[in-house]
């Protein structure tokens, strides 16, 4: 049975790839309509995340030429996750199913058939999972693996090797809309929703044009966001460490007293300095982590809008 599909494609300075992406997706849509997988009024929605190049101009032209393309323009750059959410929340009222995908065609668009088949079998969420990370640099591969392992240790349920290439049904999107948090880490939030889910594996290729918009700095910020938005275990770890040190300090005190009474008062300068540094370091670290959470509370209490839509090119 044909469903109305809207694909949500976040775009930040994607001038070099947009036309080609649009061309390939349009062809894909034609074949999906022919197979009766999707309805004729299905759309491809480009979300311009405050690009500084001609991205919005290209989107407008695409929309004018072919109304399979729709465009959503954010008022300024709000980052990948916010751009995806803006698209999902706009698309959910019109579509039966929504698929989010990057603009650079690193994700295999031929998996869309598989996504729709899993949805037809009853899955509300279908995760696109990369079969291998061969096309990524060794650095990105190892850091990503470490990150997934750490996330799991911290009790965050995230799908291994899944980025934001994912199908969600209207029902799943309505549930996602209930999560009011400002610090977004969608791939950690979606599993929290529940409902039936499935996975489709694909090979991820290289970006065919343009540059990655995720430099190391943004990647680290994203990883930190993921951990601190979804887990309170770091606070508990600090609490445990604090407890252990507190207990140990009694023994140290006892030892110091005995040494004093025994007259061995040539107490070591080294140990004093070392302990000051140790405690000082631990305290600073603890304050830093606690501060991170306080920062989050601060942000949440402000209830800032996660995105502001400037325009919506629709029919
Ligand atoms: N993106 C965005 N806003 C940003 C940064 C990136 O909407 O501030 C989009 C970008 O246009 C692309 C997707 O997010 O469609 C993923 O970015 P990219 O391909 O550069 O990341 P990588 O694949 O290198 O991790
Ligand atoms: Mg990419």
Description of the molecule:
The chain has 315 residues and is α/β, with parallel strands linked by helices. It folds into two domains: 5-211 and 304-313, Alpha-Beta Complex (Spore Coat Polysaccharide Biosynthesis Protein SpsA, Chain A), CATH 3.90.550.10; 233-302. It contains ten helices and eight strands. It has helices spanning 18-34, 55-65, 80-91, 112-120, 138-153, 170-176, 186-193, 216-230, 233-261, 269-302, and strands at 5-11, 43-48, 69-74, 97-100, 125-130, 162-169, 197-202, 309-313. The chain has an eight-stranded mixed β-sheet with strand order 7-5-6-4-1-2-3-8, with helices on both faces. The two termini are 24 Å apart. The protein binds uridine-5'-diphosphate (UDP) and magnesium ion (MG).
């Amino acid at each position: 049975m044909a469903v109305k599909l809207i694909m949500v494609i976040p775009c930040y300075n994607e001038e070099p790839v947009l036309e080609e992406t649009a061309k390939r997706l349009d062809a894909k849509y034609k074949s999906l309509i022919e197979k009766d997988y999707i309805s004729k009024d299905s759309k491809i929605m480009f979300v311009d995340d405050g690009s500084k190049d001609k991205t919005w101009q290209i989107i407008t032209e695409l929309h004018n030429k072919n109304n399979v393309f729709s465009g959503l323009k954010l008022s300024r750059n709000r980052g990948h996750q916010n751009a995806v959410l803006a698209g999902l929340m706009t698309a959910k009222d019109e579509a039966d199913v929504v698929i989010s995908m990057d603009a650079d065609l690193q994700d295999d668009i031929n998996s869309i058939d598989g996504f729709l088949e899993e949805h037809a079998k009853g899955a509300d969420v279908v995760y696109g999972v990369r079969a291998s990370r061969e096309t990524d640099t060794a650095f990105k591969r190892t850091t990503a693996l470490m990150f997934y392992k750490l996330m799991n240790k911290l009790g965050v349920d995230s799908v291994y090797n899944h980025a934001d290439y994912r199908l969600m049904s209207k029902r799943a999107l309505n549930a996602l809309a209930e999560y009011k948090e400002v610090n977004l880490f969608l791939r950690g939030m979606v599993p929290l929703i529940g409902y039936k889910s499935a996975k489709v594996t694909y090979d991820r290729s290289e970006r065919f044009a343009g540059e990655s918009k995720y430099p190391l700095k943004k990647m680290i910020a994203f990883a930190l966001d993921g951990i601190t938005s979804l887990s309170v275990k770091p606070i508990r770890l600090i609490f445990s460490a604090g407890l252990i040190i507190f207990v140990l300090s009694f023994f140290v005190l006892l030892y110091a007293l005995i040494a004093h009474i025994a007259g061995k008062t040539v107490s070591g300068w080294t140990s004093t300095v070392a302990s000051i540094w140790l405690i000082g370091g631990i305290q600073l670290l603890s304050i830093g982590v606690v501060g991170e959470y306080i920062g989050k509370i601060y942000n949440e209490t402000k209830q800032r809008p996660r995105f502001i839509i400037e325009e919506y090119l629709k029919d």
